[in-house]
Design brief:
alpha+beta, 4-stranded antiparallel sheet
Amino acid sequence: MLEVQWILADTEWLAGPKKYAVEGIFYLHTEAGDFPCTRWKTLPAIILSDMINSVLQLVQQKDKKIIVPLGLSNHYYCLLQVQENNICNINFLRRYIPEPLDILPPIILSYSDLCHILYMAGETMLQEYHAKKIGVATETYALATNVQKIREKIT
């Protein structure tokens, strides 16, 4: 099981004519726990957009492997690998410890399931941003573009 989760910072002051990039917390929820467990502040739309973009690039990589940072600090990241049968392994890593986390086993799911999970998360995040009238054009445009690309991949 894999879920993309985020918590937006207080957004009332972000709405209106002067908009700012939206801060919040972004993490992945699994049956074994959350990653990163510390739930650092970041820019959720940018992180999700980058993650979708990386997953789309994954199948084009020669070795079918890509590292996806989870946060602007790059302390936490995922190593995604696609095997020949389109099964995706997701390992959770920390920059300061080079091997996968023992407490969080890798997630194994199909590449199409991963794309669907990210698509649904992106759509939901975009709806939330539009409903609250928050976010700057560049972050919402990048997310919307990548959501459309991944949508085309799963349909």
